[in-house]
Amino acid sequence: MLLKLGSKPALVVSSAEIAKKIMKTHDLSFAGRPVLIAQKKIFYDMTDLLNLPYGEKWRKLRSIFMQQLLSSTRVKSFNSIMEDETGLLVEKIEACFMSSSPVNLTDMFMSLSNDLISRAALGKKHSETEHGKKFLELLNEAVGLFYNFTLGEFVPWLGWINRLNGYNAALDKCEEKTDEIMDAIIEDHLNSGGDDKSKECFMDILLDMYKSNTPGFSIDLITLKGVILDVFAGGTETSAKTLGWVMTELMRHPEVMKKLQYEVREIMQGKYNITHDDLQKMHYLKAVIKETFRYHPPLTMNFHSSREYVNLLGYDIEPETMVLINTWAIGRDPTYWPEPEKFMPERFLNSSVDFRGFDFQLLPFGAGRRICPGLEFAASAIEHTVAKLMQKFDWALPNGMKGEELDVMEKPGVTTGRKNPLIVVVTKCYF
C-alpha cells in the first residue's frame, strides 16, 4: 500500500512476495533507513550501525561487528557466558521458590538480556552497577520514543506541536542521559577492564580502532558510542520481550510446555550444563521459538528507505520513500500459515522455514543487507534460557489461574512486549 504520511511518501508491505522483492530482488535500492527525529537525536545523528546510511563506512563497520562479536563462531564461544548467566537466573528463581514468592519473569528477563550482552560485548556486566541500572530504565523510556510518529515528523510546519506536547523536551533529556551513560560505560571499561579477564572483547577492539586511526578505516568517539548503544538497544529489549512471550504461550498451552519439558529433560539426562550440541538436538524447542517469532515478532515493523527511483510491480517508488515491512501481518497471513491465530509449534517440525532471512513469510529479524546482525546471538540466548527453565522447573500461574485466563495484552510499539509483567509460581524439579 503506497500512501503519503504528511509530506513523506510511505510504502506499507504486508505480503511475503512483495517483502521478497524489496529485501532480495531490489535489496540494494531499499537498503536505506528512514531519517526520523528520535533516531537522529538518540543515535548520535544516525552514525551508528543500525541507522547509518548504506555505503562503504556501513559495510566496514558491519564487517567488524560480525567478525568480532556476532558471527556464528563467536556466538558459540559465548556458551560459557550463557551458561553462567542462566545459572544465576536459576538461582534467583530458586530463591523465590524457597521463600514461596511469585516470580516476575519480565524483570528477570530484562536483567538477563542486558547482562548477556554486556558480558559478550564489554567483558563485564552492568545491570548491577549504578549506570547499568539507569541504563535499563533509560532503554524502556527510549523505546517509547523510537518510531513514535508525530505530526512534526511528517508535517514540518506543525513541528511546534512537538515542542508544545513535550516530545522534543523528552528527546533532549533522553539524548543527554544516553550520552552520560555511554561516557560512563567507556570510562569504566578503561579504568577496570572486563570481569572475564579476557584479552580482548568487542569494546577493546573498538577502542583500539578509535585510538589508532588506522589507515583505511577508523572510528571517532561518536561512532564508538553509537555502536555500543546499538549492541544494547538492539538486543536487550527484543530478546527480553521474546522470552516473555515464549513463557506466556507456554503458560497458556500446558500441553506444549509438557512436550517441551520432556524433550529437554530426555536430552539432558540430569546434566547441569547445556551445550551447543545439546541445543541442536532440541527440535521441539526450536519449533516453539520459531512459532513465537511468528506469533509475536520482536519487531512488528521492519523499517527501510529507498535510495533511488525503483519500479516495483508497475509503481514508481521515489527516493527516500519510507518502507514499512509489516512482519506481524505477514506472520499471521493465512496464505502462508494455516490457522494463523493458533499457537502451534508443530507447524515447524516438518518444515524447512527458518527465520534467517531466506523465508519471507517469517521475518522476525528482517532480511537482506539490513538483516539484524544480532540474529545468531539472540536466537542462541533465547534457546539456552528457555531450555534451562524447562529443565529446572515446573511452572504454574498464581492463585490457581488457568492458562486461558492469562492476559496477553500488548504494550504498543515497534518492539511489542507484554503490557503487564508476567508473574508465575515455580516448583523446583529434582533429578
TrEMBL record:
Its main location: membrane. Keywords: Heme, Iron, Metal-binding, Monooxygenase, Oxidoreductase. Heme binds at C372. One of its GO terms (molecular function) is monooxygenase activity. It is found in: Membrane. Its cofactor is heme. SUPFAM superfamilies: Cytochrome P450. Its EC number is 1.14.13.104. GO terms for cellular component: membrane. It holds the Pfam family p450. It is an enzyme of class 1 (oxidoreductase). The keyword Transmembrane does not apply. It is a single-pass membrane protein. PANTHER family: CYTOCHROME P450 71A2-LIKE (PTHR47955:SF15), CYTOCHROME P450 FAMILY 71 PROTEIN (PTHR47955). Belongs to the cytochrome P450 family. This is Cytochrome P450 CYP2 subfamily.
